[in-house]
Amino acid sequence: MPYWLKFAYSLMVTVIVVVYWIELGPVNFLWFSDIALIALVPALWWENRLISSTMAVSVLLIEIGWVIDFLSAGQLLGGARYVFENETELHIRVISALFHMVLPAMLIYLLIRLGYDRRAFWWQTLLMLVVVPVSYVLSPLEENINWVFGPGEPQQLLPPLPYLGLLMLVFALGVYLPSHLLFSRFLGGRSD
Q1: Where residue 46 falls among pLDDT bands split at 50, 70, 90?
Q2: Is the pLDDT reported for residue 24 higher than 70?
């Protein structure tokens, strides 16, 4: 892989991490997209198919949805709406838009370049089983990191623990498994 890409991506991630750490705090890095953004640095440098595949299983479909929502000015799904609202500081909105536009492109590039590792589904599921409970414990209600309190807004239908269990099932079976099957079918999936 070209060194300019490795350096450029690493520099971008460094800037984002510093700004987010100062402005949003360390708990913000529990978002699966933030985990993927950071994990792609070693994936790029080591040209590691397992890391890049695991992050693709985790967030690629969601990130593509974010980009589509962004192109609709946040009107289609509502997930990118904050980028167009003045409640969030401008520099955070710009960095967030850049981050969420580059991440899926980088994931697709790495999948095409390195291939897909079929172990990614299991590794991402294990990671999720750690990150979701930690997000629930550490995430302030207004941050709702990884939607641990509800999809978008805090939910009232279920008690917290059954909701978390359902959320983990949705991640595993509704996001990770379809991603895994799609990548395995079209990218040949290898395990090594």
Answers
A1: very high
A2: yes
Backbone torsions φ then ψ of 144, nearest 5 degrees: 50, 50
Q: How far apart are CA 9 and CA 71, in angstroms?
A: 23
pLDDT in tens, 67-82: 999 999 878 888 888 8
pLDDT score at 190: 66
pLDDT digits (tens, 9 = 90+) for 52-70: 999 999 999 999 999 999 9
CB 30 within 8 A of CB 139: yes
> Number of helices (H) and strands (E), helices first, in the chain?
7, 0
Rg from Cα positions in the chain: 16
Give first-to-last CA distance, the chain, whole Å: 20
In Å, the largest CA–CA distance within the chain is 50
Spatial CA neighbour of 93 closest among 82, 108, 107, 78: 82
Mean pLDDT of 149-166: 94
CA 78, CA 67: separation in Å to the nearest integer? Answer: 11
Neighbouring residues of 117: CB distance < 8 A, sequence distance ≥ 6: 49, 50, 53, 54, 189, 190, 191, 192
DSSP 132: H
The CA distance from 183 to 172, in Å, is 15
| Four-residue CA torsion sign, 147, 151, 155, 159 | negative
